[in-house]
């Protein structure tokens, strides 16, 4: 072991020099740092120093997330982790206190190459900025010139695209980021088929509801649940390779392609997207210190739900925006730039948040203009309206202009809470946790994560946990987002059609709240039978139909209010040729909402159809009755594949 003084602790010293008076409690650690340096035993010295960094991080984070000096503090914060990581690598101890898991990150992808690029770039940035697990270099290589790789991180792109051009781009991205330092595997459709066929036929047939049936699947657009479950096979294959740790030393991390390893924070100049969380470090710490089988985290930014359940409150906000605009002069300097942005309540974007035991203290949230003035010029309200109109139809592709969610630092990032929902784009498991799948993939229902979460919670209790390490849901950050595949959304000439997504949302809700009702009644999944399920579905079905009908009427009423407001000839936006196209975009938005919520709409008809509901409920009953059988078959397959 080298003399301790040869190790770089420059950022730690800078921390004590610059932030000693700013960060409460830091001075005590400054004294401890001096004591550590006086220790003669180098191994003990390094070990204590590694722990010192860990103890300081929460103090620094608490100040950083409320500081006006955020950017500078973030830079120091990242450098502190890099310094600590060098010490961990040089310490090279077998102690469980400094164990570092390998990670295999699984990213299902279906015709979204630009989203995939954003996700891969965020992984690369987090690895570079925080340096979890260290990096291996070949000769004089660096992360800039290639031939270097992060030691503990592997990424698997799980292909589910239909278009060959997108598959080719995905494969090229795997090669590009492998050269940059990430080990990225492209898990193509043919390879998925081959891995499935390698499973004995009887076992493969038993798990067909989980990973699909190769004799009937198109093998593209299989859906997120089936594709994600298929990725387990590739992850287990990788743990058998020499360059990867065995399955007991690996964490399996599941993310979506439209998500990124960063979070958002509101600033005076608009939203800022930052690499402010060392995901791999904190998740590693939690799995080392706590008995966790599955860990999940929320999403921030674009709401992770269908537009079909956000339309009511978004219309409230759009109406409020135009009412505010009507009192403004079109050429006056835009005043939709509040000094501090009001963060929406948790799930404030959801029209029926009360069903989840959540609520909101506000009826409306203000639109915050996204135009950033340059060269000393100031934009006016006409420009603000134009900018708003250009984004209003992004709503149908997953953006909520007024009720985005934001990261909030609420305490130590090692704090966990019992979970009840799997966020399918942000969960991590041990090998043992791979048995707790997201089921019912063949039904293609929305709300699969909350449904699976309730079932898993009933089985393993607090071993299913949540942590405040959210990911950025970047559904519409890309300028060409409309070219990216979104199941259930079709853009037609005169409107955007949510029929498929709307139908899957309703029956996903029906499945979820039936499972919730059963759980609250104390009925264990082992005791499910057709009679109990039929009775419970019937009760929940009636409640949901009534709620959805109220919602339909409410949305249509608000559409009428908004139409009357924007078509009022007394308001200035109807007297500007320059705003004609902008107002047409707003009218197209109203037209699309009306199309999807009108009583004659396909979505509404499918929900109201007794026959369709009967078919769907029967599918769900069969799936719930088969759940325990499917899980047993899945456990058997995991053991078979992992040996």
Quick take:
By secondary structure, the chain is of the alpha/beta class. It is 47% helix and 12% strand. The chain has helices at 10-19, 26-37, 42-64, 70-91, 113-130, 164-180, 189-197, 201-206, 208-211, 224-238, 279-289, 311-326, 381-392, 448-460, 499-520, 530-566, 580-597, 602-608, 610-641; strands at residues 102-109, 135-142, 146-150, 153-159, 183-187, 250-255, 259-260, 263-267, 270-274, 294-296, 299-301, 416-418, 426-429, 464-467, 471-473, 490-491, 496-497.
What would your notes on this structure say?
This protein has 19 helices and 17 strands. The chain is α/β, with parallel strands linked by helices and 643 residues long. Among the domains are: 4-97, no CATH class; 99-301 and 408-476 and 631-641, Spore Coat Polysaccharide Biosynthesis Protein SpsA, Chain A (Alpha-Beta Complex). α16 (530-566) packs antiparallel against α17. The longest helix is centred in the C-terminal third of the chain and has 37 residues, at 530-566.
Which range does the strand content fall in? 5-15%
Task: Tell me about the largest β-sheet.
Answer: 8 strands, mixed
Q: Structural class of the secondary structure composition? A: alpha/beta
If you consult CATH, what is the topology of one domain?
A: Spore Coat Polysaccharide Biosynthesis Protein SpsA, Chain A
| CATH structural class of one domain | Alpha Beta
Shape: globular
Q: What share of residues is helical?
A: 40-55%
CATH architecture classification of one domain:
Alpha-Beta Complex
